[in-house]
Design goal:
The structure holds two protein chains of two kinds.
Chain A: H1 6-50, E1 64-67, H2 70-73, E2 79-86, E3 89-102, E4 105-114, E5 119-126, H3 178-196, H4 198-203, H5 209-212
Antiparallel strand pairs in A: 1-2, 2-3, 3-4, 4-5
Chain B: H1 8-18, H2 21-25, H3 29-34, H4 39-62, H5 69-94, H6 96-102, H7 113-121, H8 128-158, E1 160-161, H9 166-169, E2 178-179, H10 188-191, H11 193-220
Antiparallel strand pairs in B: 1-2
The chains are: A alpha+beta, B mainly alpha.
The structure holds flavin mononucleotide (FMN).
Chain lengths: 214, 235
Amino acid sequence: MNADSPLRSGLTLAGIAVLGVALLTGIHHLTRERIAAQQRDAVAMRLSQVLAPDRYDNDLLHDVIQVTDPETFGHPGPATVYRARRDGQPVAVVMEVTAPNGYNGPIRMLVGILADGSISGVRVVSHRETPGLGDPIEARRSDWITRFEGRSLRDPTPEGWAVRRDGGEFDQFTGATITPRAVVEAVQRALEYHRAHLDALYARQSADEQSTDE
Amino acid sequence: MSEHRTPLGDIFTEAAWRQNTGLVVLLGLCPLLAVSGTVVNGLGLGLATTFVLLVSNLSVSLLRKTLRPEIRIPAFVLIIASAVTAIDLLMQAWFHDLYGVLGIFIPLIVTNCAIIGRAEAFAARNPPMAAAVDGLGTGLGFCLALVLLGALRELAGHGTLLAGADMMFGEWARSLELTLVPNHPGFLLAILPPGAFIGLGLLIAARNAIIARGERRAKAGSPRVTAPVARGESA
Ligand SMILES: Cc1cc2nc3c(=O)[nH]c(=O)nc-3n(C[C@H](O)[C@H](O)[C@H](O)COP(=O)(O)O)c2cc1C
């Protein structure tokens, strides 16, 4: 074959591509299980922050349903709801809720609600709020988010489910009202959804087929 | 550029300091400005970039006799993309928390033109050992710029240093976090993008001052080749 031929150039490139693919296939196989395990750990770790693992005895990660309710969950797609039970009896649900109206975009969070309608915990999973202004919603920056614990639709009353500036019971941050307002509203919506769909949330068949086959 | 005979130490200082990507050549500014909010973020991205530079320089140098001019750019792109994907997977597996923070910037290492720049300007013309040293030097130089800028912004913006070190080194590293200014109210300008530009300007000025002082000393003593100062158009 002529040393200058385009064919040779093409083959060289193809060879490099094949080498690259072979390398990445190898690395993918090496890391696949570890990545899946890390992702499971990360989810379990987050869930344990909104609902203490000793409260339930079922496999929370696999007792899940998908519900679609854009009004409540803040985005058009399905939202995941984890169901915790003890001896088969409902204990709590943990819902993936999005506050669509953060200052810099959606704020994704987990809201844990006990079967009696009170909150077991709330944590922000991801957000793009301004560091130093909106980020006290993160548990590692302030204890603000923990103040939802034990609250319910009766405590405070509906008027109280707002930031102080709007006449409610929850503190806003210095110079940042929009972020905490969005979070408070989203938590309240989650509670209302829980009250309206309490039985259905626990009764529905677990829709876990997709997430078990890794 | 450097000849085959250039001592490896000189190649390293040339790449890491005299031609520092972040502070002199001013390549790869997008990640430099975007990920330098804290020391740990800067260090994470800097080390990832160093790894990619090392692998891509080494591979390009090993293949330099096979790569004819017309295909060398696509070949560089293939090599760099493979290296970046590899580090993306490895980070997901072993530094999952840090990956959560840096995640979107890792694939963007591909677009750091410093990498293809070193492949073209150095690795394609030099033997593997020299290319590897150049990659390491360029990467560590970039990492240095990221860490310095991260330190500057973290200190001014949050009053801390090394916050979140546990994401990179595990639980024990939580104790590495230094709170140098307790109850710091937060300085937004340093945290937001404009702070990155201002900080980078200060770092470049500091580096130029060091170089200028070196030159004055050199003038007083024996004449020496001087290092270039930042101009920004040398790439
Ligand atoms: C650069 C910049 C970033 C801001 N980021 C936030 C934020 O993340 N969250 C927030 O609630 N307010 C943020 N604010 C402030 C809001 O614009 C608004 O002034 C603040 O929420 C106070 O609202 P209020 O006047 O209704 O109390 C930011 C302002 C600026 C200039």
